[in-house]
Design brief:
Shape: globular
Distance between the termini: 96 Å
Strand content: 25-35%
Helix content: 40-55%
Number of strands: 5
Largest sheet: 5 strands, antiparallel
Length: about 210
């Protein structure tokens, strides 16, 4: 029974939605539909994982209170960049992962951002000890304003959801795939029409 409980506990840990997952620069750029830019500054770019966004609004008009929670990634760039950095793609120094919350009161026009640092990675996705960064204050510093983040996230969340490319491709290929199969059909009907056209000829000869 103890072994069973141990296996169940291990399964719950593996299936937990909050399980840590390394993030690198390539992953952020490879899926722009999921990781959307909500802020771009001189030395950092902020992404929101749109699959993680959870919003709560009041029922009054115009939904005066709104809270949004989401996974946020902050991509930091070098202060001084030379030609070699551009050539080798060495612009990104680190990627910070946050659990973020935006709290908005539209009547008072007040915006608040709260963040909890989850992990820090380098551009290739290798973990960086967050404790070392927290001591310098760089790990938790966000230069973007909460109002700007909220407005950009608000617009992106309300964009029409496009169908994934893998779902669209089969429907586009379907006519091309069916065309070789339907090609013999006209010849078959043509043959039947020719046969039916020749059928009255013997009848005319019998008369």
């Amino acid at each position: 029974m103890k072994k069973l409980y141990s296996l169940l506990a291990a399964g719950l840990l593996l299936a937990a939605p909050g399980a840590a997952r390394a993030m690198d620069q390539a992953a952020l750029l490879a899926d722009p539909g999921r990781y959307r830019v909500i802020y771009a500054g001189e030395d950092e770019v902020i992404y929101a994982d749109m699959t993680s966004v959870r919003s709560i609004q009041t029922m009054d008009f115009p939904n005066s209170i709104e809270n949004a929670h989401f996974k946020m990634y902050v991509e930091s760039y070098k202060d001084k960049v030379d030609a070699m950095d551009f050539a080798k793609g060495g612009l990104v120094t680190q990627i910070r992962e946050f659990d973020a919350g935006l709290y908005v009161n539209k009547n008072k026009k007040s915006y608040k951002l709260e963040t909890k640092l989850d992990a820090v990675y380098d551009a290739a996705g290798a973990a960086i000890p967050a404790k070392d960064l927290e001591e310098t204050g760089d790990a938790v510093k966000i230069r973007a304003k909460a109002e700007d983040l909220y407005k950009n996230l608000y617009r992106l969340e309300r964009l029409p959801k496009a169908a994934p490319a893998e779902e669209v491709a089969p429907s586009q290929e379907a006519p091309a795939a069916s065309s070789p199969e339907t090609a013999p059909a006209p010849s078959a009907t043509t043959g039947q029409a020719a046969a039916s056209a020749e059928a009255p000829a013997p009848a005319a000869q019998t008369k």
